[in-house]
Design goal:
Pfam families: DDE_Tnp_IS66 (PF03050), DDE_Tnp_IS66_C (PF13817), LZ_Tnp_IS66 (PF13007), zf-IS66 (PF13005)
Strand order of the largest sheet: 5-4-3-6-7
Radius of gyration: 31 Å
Largest sheet: 5 strands, mixed
Structural class: alpha/beta
Organism: Novosphingobium barchaimii LL02
Number of helices: 17
Order of helices and strands: HHHEEHHHHEEEHEEHHHHHHHHH
Distance between the termini: 101 Å
Helix content: 40-55%
Protein name: Transposase IS66
InterPro entries: IS66_C, Transposase-related, Transposase_IS66_central, Transposase_TnpC_homeodom, Znf_dom_IS66
Length: about 500
Amino acid sequence: MQELRDVIGRMQGELKFKQTRIEALNFEIARLKRWRFGSSSESLETSTQAVLFDQILADTALEDRAAQQDQKPPVAPPRAKGQAVRQALPASLPRIDHHHEIEQTHCECGQPFKRIGQEVSEQLDCVPAQFFVLRHIRGKYACTCCQTIQAAPMPAQIIDKGIPAPGLLAQVVVAKHDDHLPLYRQEEIYARSGVHIPRSSMAQWIGICGVRLAPLADALKGFILSHGVIHADETPVSLLAPGRGKTKRAYVWVYRTTNFVAQRAVLFDFTASRAGEHPRRVLRGFGGTLVSDDYSGYFGLQAQGVSAALCWAHARRKLFEAHEFNASQIAGQAVALIAKLYEVEREARELEPQARWLLRQQRSRPIVQALHLWLTGQRQKLANADVTAKAIDYSLSNWRALTRYLDDGDVPIDNNAAENAVRPLCVGRKNWLFVGSQQAGERAGVVMSLIESAKLNGHDPWAYLKDVFERLPTLKQRDLAQLLPHNWRPATDIAVPNAALAAAA
């Protein structure tokens, strides 16, 4: 009889293990399907959000609702679904007037019509990109006595004796690294405007621009490291392996200032591997707080005094997936509590660091303490192989780094700023597919750093690069900081021959 009980117990244990394993595999399949075909939204249903810790946070929830009712302004009636709203055309665009008058000058009664006003309607029009030629006419002077000739010097150029002017260089670079247009597509586009530019020439131009802009990227790196808190993330790209006709995996590391500072910057660093030596090389001398994910490559930075602040979005995502794919109520309740933390952050976004820290102490810390108590208690009820248990283990094992933001008003709650900075790379690699060489990747990182930093500071990347290409050849090293995106000021008027407007008129 005892042997039978032992067999039954062993079989029940094996059955439970296999069932847990099946659930884990189903979870992986569901997550892969969602990554490939599903929506990226991680919002919970209203009914799930209502399942909060009523006894633990009842008072907090009541206070929040009362405050929202007191501060909430009257809401305008919603617009009917599907009703289109036409946006006004920008007032800065030039207007070309076409006057239309009626042919009939007299009424049927015989009296002449009298003009009483006019009706104006506007349409948006465009012409394809139009090229023009800059002619540098330099006067030549001779001395009949000394038999010498002198001519006015040619202005210094980014590409010495090259055909492309700064505006064309800026166009090719921005189209490649911001609009994600491969060079063969640009070649076709420019040919429709009547100019043939071989893609080999454009590739050479982009490479030279990457070399010339490298000092600016180095200065940008110094500016980022001067902050006390920065973001970091990495993403894979394909690198062509010479002689093999295949590609291998390389990485681009992203370092970015937080959204809490007015002057923002981002740096892209291309490397051939994901080794931890690369962030240690870039962040040498940095001793502040690094906001990142739980990748082990960042662990070595703690030896040089860097404080780790992990991303709540990563912890939330693991719990959300456990709830979404395994219908875990435990994970769903944890996600709902994390949503309360983000509600506080929406209020704290525009505050000064000290006020933000105080608000977090009053509102966020009680929620964090309740969440830790809840996760610790629920984890004891779950098997180690359970998907929810793994999601909880991630949060509990990194709890100190996850709650680092509560101690410093300058530290953001998540690493979303860096993940958003990675998006241009994710879009671009679907178009250019792979990086041709290590050198090309490093130069692309330089150019993208300046383009994306210019956009972070509200600048038009074409206007910024055009001005940089004009001024950089004659700029002294000590004045280099003037051309950094957060210091750059656009000219009041960018002089471009308005051939398109004249042709339309």
